[in-house]
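Risk register update: the risk of archive-format incompatibility is retired. Evidence:
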Amino acid sequence: MFYVTNNRNNQRERKSMEQINPATWISSIKTYVLDTNVLLHDPNCIGAFKDNEIFISIIAIEEVDRNKANPTVGHLARQLSRNLDEIRKGGGDICRDGVKTVGGGILKLDVNGDDTSPLSKIGLDVSSNDNKIILLCLRLMKERPGRRVVLVTKDINMRLKAAALGVAAEDYESDMVDTSSIRGDVSSLSVSPDVHRIINQKSFIPVEKTGINAEVISTLMPNCCCELVIEGNPSISVLAIYDEAGKRFELVKKPRSDGQGIYPRSPRQAFAYALCLNQRIPLVALGGRAGTGKTLIALLAGIQLVTEGKFKQIVVFRPTIEVGQSMGFLPGNLEEKFEPWQKPIIKLANKILDSGKEKKKSKTGEIMTNGKLQILPFVHSRGETYEDSFIIVDETQNLKPVEAKTLVTRVGQNSRMIVTGDSGQIDAPFLKEENCGISHIIARMLGRKVFAYCILTKGERSELAELASELL
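Archived output:
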């Protein structure tokens, strides 16, 4: 439903052409040339091109090799190398005839040089690796007249340069999702006053007692947030979560207004907090712009559940993405290097522990020392299984889909994961709303009984922060 591939029309086109004239079958095959950033973005990208011809320049392999020790993309570079080696072992000369891929296509490694005169004519750098990969496309266009040759790159400027040289260029689309389907996270349902009385008394109400039409119920997603509004009096409503398996609505406590302590301050924060606490739902996504309280609500729920003994520890993962110009090399050991990314979580935890009933509990430093709170960089997740843990993945918009998958698959027995993110604040290169981690998780998991999401809309940080979020 949400999956878009670069060759989505190939099968249909090829079948039609075979019926008309089998001799023209080969012209429906496309030749794709993959840029280095595509290979590092998705190490499994070869499978996305099905039965087409795929070229990888030896230059791209060199660039991948140089990134193996890179702390940000090194794990992706190493995974790609393993994947390519497995394909190569399948038999055939990968440089001359190519080797078959699982999708029925052909993968070739190009080691030939090219005439650089086309670059010189329009003033492009002949030593640039990007430009050399574009030259490979030009040569393949001459060698394969009548066949569509496409450069696939996530670099917008490279696509512009390719267009200047007459080369077709596309973004890598196989991991992009339809984000239009993840907006309607709260449903408004009209009910009688009796529904309010029952759900407030029992904290839940069976679906059959709500009087809501069965067709309306069938449109609700599992674990969706609902506002039950009294018929004829829209000013009175109850917040509830729809439990599809239990065929009932579960009461959500409305926001407090006494101004004391840390607590949900808006209906959507109340929904988010209830979802994070809900024992039925092991994966929750909280979206929303800066200042809406995504991380605070997740951490508030985690501290409450760990304090109650529901989980042994809170584990917070943060991508090590810098905003603006890089600070360069940071001295010290791993913990000292990661300190700038730990500080926001430590400040939030201190704020929660210093407020209300949590004030007498152990401070953040103490709970970190005894292992109750761990704040880790994303690279620490690989190979781990987290059991009896409340896991928060912060700033998920800065994760690639393959990285988001890696994190979610770390969840072990009796663990819960909360992912937070704002697709409007993507700092990682080559990511956008349609393929960032938070969008990928929501679109792929939507409709599953193990998943729920809520988009926070009201800024609570300050009036200025809210205004800046809207205007700047």
